Amino acid sequence: MIQMYHVDMRYAGGAFGLRDVSLHVERGEFVFLTGASGAGKTSLLRLLFAAEAPSAGQVLVSGRNLSRLSSSQVPQLRREIGVIFQDFKLLGERTVFENVAVTLEIAGASRREIRARVWSILKRLGLGHRLDHRPRALSGGEQQRVAIARALVNDPPLVLADEPTGNLDPDLARDIMDIIADAHARGTTVIVATHDPTLLERYRHRLLVLEGGALVQDNAPDSYPGSVRRAVSTSA
Ligand SMILES: Nc1ncnc2c1ncn2[C@@H]1O[C@H](COP(=O)(O)OP(=O)(O)OP(=O)(O)O)[C@@H](O)[C@H]1O
Ligand SMILES: [Mg+2]
After folding, report:
1. With a 6 A CB cut-off, is 17 part of the ligand 1 pocket?
2. Which CATH superfamily is domain 1-79+162-167+188-236 in?
3. Residue 190 pLDDT exceeds 60
4. Which atom of ligand 1 lies at the shortest distance from residue 210's CA?
5. What residues does each domain of the chain span?
6. 235: pLDDT strictly greater than 60
């Protein structure tokens, strides 16, 4: 699903987002990405949906070489990726239902299918009573769940999540992780960036650790170093 070969990513001004990262993620894998603030987690995820370009090396997503992607091919790539980010942007003038329906409208789904799928995912996320509200009438956690519903409603083959449980209380955090785990169980490839050790301990998956933009650890699910807490904090 994802292949990276000696990838550098530098921001304007020269700061390194990523340094010499080589990585393979198979179709259907669930991967956690961790590391201290500034380690490069968001940079790596942004690279994968072509929000940033590599400065050196090669990145392949679903067989597409992102260095050679023309701007007209970017929307097609993004239709295959469910992106759950902290700076989720909901459409302020649209209802909750419409905000989630957008993903399926773009994909050309029928009205009937749109209604069924949007209703089902919003209900699962505890937003069944919020369908007709505008985003500004919702709490931060509710808005975040709408953004998650929008990202997952079309069952994308790849899901990228950046601190998806960041603003949520523990119960909601678990619900979100369950929804992501469900998508994974249906065959979706998932990458979740987090520095929440509780999450890493509860859900044992392959764990990548970034430090200063470099990939410094790649742990199999059952071979985490002694304590995840230590693994996360030593990279701080
Ligand atoms: N838009 C930008 N312009 C310049 N430098 C940036 C930009 N975004 C990130 N960086 C730099 O790139 C490096 C990696 O940042 P990144 O946001 O990927 O880290 P992160 O692991 O996601 O951190 P956090 O846990 O705080 O979200 C940092 O040194 C950061 O300062
Ligand atoms: Mg980040």
Report:
1. yes
2. P-loop containing nucleotide triphosphate hydrolases (3.40.50.300)
3. yes
4. 21
5. 1-79+162-167+188-236, 81-155
6. no
